[in-house]
Structures are given as C-alpha cells and as structure tokens.
Amino acid sequence: MKNFWRVFYLICAVSTMVLIFLVVSLFKGDQITFTPSAGEPLDEITPSIQSYSPIRGNSTNPTVIIFSYSNYLCPACKGVDSALTEIIAKQPEVAVIWKDFPNSSLYPESVNAAVTARCAGDQKKYWEFHDRLFDNQPTLGRETYIEIAKALELNEKKFTKCLDSQANISFVNADYTEGTKLSIISAPTIFVNGLTHTGALRPQELELMVKQALDALTAK
Prior knowledge:
- By secondary structure, the chain is of the alpha+beta class.
- The chain has eight helices and seven strands, in the order αββββαβαααααββα.
- The strands form two sheets. It has a five-stranded mixed beta sheet. The protein has a two-stranded antiparallel ribbon with strand order 1-2.
C-alpha cells in the first residue's frame, strides 16, 4: 500500500512539473502564444490585388506577378521601377502591381507624390503620371505636379481639387499598412511569385528572379 502511494505521489509531482513547464513555455513577454494543432492552417499574410491597385503588363492572365512596394522620392526605387519596365517589355507573362510605401520622415513629399499619381489615375493617366514622377524626382512638389498634369492634358481643376483634398490617401495608407503587416521596413521591396528582394536591383537580377519563378512553376 505504501508503494502505491509513493508511486501516486511521484506521478502527481511529475505531472505538476510538466504542466508548469508547458504553461511557462507558452508565455512570450506578457502574452501567451498558442501553437496550432497539427494540421491546422496558419493565417498567411501575402500581398493582395485590390480594385484600386495599379497594374502594368499582363493584367488578364499573368504567369508571374510582381508586387512592388515603392515610393517616388527614393533613388533606389527609381532604379527598380526602370528594371520592372524592362522586364514587362521582355516578358509578356509578367504583371507588375504597384504598392505605395511612402516614407514621410525621410522623404516628406512622398505621400503627396503617391496621392497625385492616384489623382491622375482618376483620369485614366496613372502610369503616365507615375513615369513622369520618377523622371522629375529631384523637383517633386505642387508646382511640378501641376506641370505634369498640364503636360498630360488632365482636367486641371479636377486634379488640383483631388490633390488639395487628399481624396485618394486612403488607398495610399492601405498599401502602406499592408506592407507593414508583411514586415516590410523600407522601399523598394518586391515580391516575385513569393520571392522577396529589398533594395537596389539591377535588371539582370530581376530577370533571374523571374526565371526562378517560372522554373518553379514548371517543376510543379
């Protein structure tokens, strides 16, 4: 009988220690982290295409989708955008989805630039305005935006009203929020069918990423 109680107490002690270990291991800081059961899917955050997302290239049935988180004031972003333009011309199966990722602390004018491009988009001239923003990167500001709008023959009254009211800033903010959820910390950052690259990118490097994406699809 004594042996029975010894075994019983030993089992209880071991069980208590295991329970304490499990509870402690679930804590991370002041929060409890729950591990999903085996086979339970994890929520995966991925770049998304929204109704307001500007699309360039193959907009109907692309094989490779490139998401470009960028802003108009950053020099490296200009280089990556140029590489993206080249790849679209060479690869008809590629689509590029522009995502606004302004950095107002480093580039105070980057939010306004993103808004003005979308104002031009309201008049079906998004990509034309987009390109001219990069072409005029050193002088971006209200005067330059209006000059570009005039050169593209936009309705100036509608354009300036859109600019002054920041009518499309919610789209810019939505892109930025999505980028932060994806743990993006700086622009340019691109996603090529899941492959990720941050920083300056030469056209040859982008071509290699597209090739890797295509090879991966062929191997499936």
